[in-house]
Automatic annotation (TrEMBL):
Entry protein name: histidine kinase
Coiled coil: none
Taxonomic lineage from the root: Bacteria, Pseudomonadati, Pseudomonadota, Gammaproteobacteria, Alteromonadales
Domain of life: Bacteria
Histidine kinase domain span: 221-419
Length: 419
């Protein structure tokens, strides 16, 4: 297929040929000789050829210059627009548009290089794996620590789907980084472009250390409880066995003490097992005052239990009754004898419910370890009451807060969402 320039050139040549034919016909009618007609033909061929060359040059030269100019810009050279293009209206505008596109591309490349340099400086020495994806999901950077990601390739330029990642409402995730890894993805904007920053933390060792600490603490508390119960029982049995003549009253006394220590130990085991056997909560609206009445059996003569706030509550009534009994029991035990008073308050704050249990005791001796399972500073305590409350409120999607009151006493605050 002929180009537009070739067609124009053929049209111009056709016009010139037509002019020559008309001149030859005219001279023929004038009676010119053949030699004269050929002489005229050869005389006109040179100017016509010169005009054809100039026409072709005027037609193609600006386009050739423009093409050369674009190629030099594409190769990254600092090209200057030719004068021939600056003098032509349409070509001058076209060259300006090309200049603007080239400048925009150069700025984009500089921004990309600046971003790559910034990312390299920030994350090259990180000990945690870091990957940077474009807004379209293309891997732009992966630091050296990302070599530790199990079974995940780090091919820069690949799509996140090809690398096994998937997009979730929380951001990027990978099915190989669930157990023993904590991942986080952040979407951010850099000079008008969207990017994803994906980080992964190997938490397998801290988890193992935490599990070992829990096991150590569990063994320590269980050993303590077992020793406290079994040592007196063993001592009383030895005393009884060393005697030759057993008296019925002495045997009954020893067996009664053995039964008391065994009941204490069984109660501890049952309370400990109840923490791990809690069912999922079945939340409903119920009368909080009715649940609080179950705590009246804990009160002795002179004890006070005051309640204020909302009379209705949305939670699992059975679990909350179990939790409230433990909290009120702890608050009464923390108060001084003769001045045992507990304040319970239930109210709504924003879109959450709040339950506060205050006492008039000495407060928490160690707030940092107060929620540690099986930790207690009370004589004869098991450290399960607050652990049970923490588990129950967590099952309701809430949190527990502990603190000491300025005027003395401790506060346990539970916050969980409203429906």
């Amino acid at each position: 297929m002929k180009t537009r320039e070739s067609r124009l050139l053929m049209l111009f040549c056709s016009i010139q040929l037509l002019v020559l034919v008309l001149l030859l016909i005219l001279t023929w009618h004038w009676g010119w000789s053949v030699l004269a007609m050929l002489t005229l033909l050869f005389a006109l061929l040179y100017p016509f050829g010169w005009l054809t060359y100039k026409f072709w040059q005027q037609l193609n030269l600006p386009l050739m210059l423009l093409s050369n100019y674009v190629q030099r810009l594409h190769s990254g050279e600092d090209a200057v627009c030719p004068n021939q293009l600056q003098q032509s209206g349409l070509l001058a505008q076209l060259s300006k548009d090309i200049d603007n596109l080239a400048a925009d591309r150069l700025r984009a490349e500089h921004q990309q290089q600046s971003l790559a340099l910034l990312i390299e400086l920030m994350f090259s020495n990180w000990s945690q794996p870091v990957c940077v994806f474009s807004g379209q999901g293309t891997l732009l950077y992966a630091n050296p620590a990302s070599n530790s990601l199990p079974g995940i390739a780090r091919l820069v330029g690949s799509s996140y789907t090809d690398l096994g990642f998937e997009m979730t409402p929380a951001g990027l995730s990978h099915h190989l980084l669930h157990k023993g890894w904590q991942t986080q993805s952040i979407r951010y904007e850099w000079q008008g472009e969207q990017y994803w920053l994906f980080t992964a933390f190997d938490i397998s060792q801290p988890l193992q250390q935490a599990e070992l600490a829990i096991q150590t603490n569990l063994v320590r508390v269980l050993s303590h409880e077992l020793r406290n119960s079994l040592t007196p029982m063993s001592s009383m049995a030895d005393t009884l066995l060393c005697g030759d003549n057993w008296q019925e009253s002495q045997v009954r006394k020893v067996l009664e003490r053995v039964r008391q220590r065994a009941n204490v130990l069984l109660e501890f085991v049952q309370r400990f097992a109840s923490v791990s056997q809690l069912p999922p909560p079945r939340q409903e609206w119920f009368s909080f005052s009715a649940v609080l009445e179950q705590c009246n059996g804990l009160l002795k003569a002179g004890d006070q239990l005051e309640f204020s706030g909302e009379g209705r509550c949305y939670a699992d009534p059975e679990l909350f009754a179990q939790m409230l009994i433990n909290l009120v029991k702890n608050a009464l035990e923390a108060s001084e004898e003769g001045e045992r008073k507990v304040w319970v308050r239930c109210y709504c704050r924003d879109k959450s419910q709040v339950l506060q249990v205050d006492d008039c005791g000495a407060g928490f001796a160690n707030l940092d370890n107060a929620l540690t399972p099986l930790y207690t500073t009370k004589t004869g305590g098991s450290g399960i009451g607050l652990t049970l409350a923490n588990v129950i409120i967590s099952k309701h999607g809430g949190r527990i807060h502990l603190g000491n009151l300025p005027g003395g006493g401790a506060r346990v605050e539970l916050v969980w969402p409203l429906p």
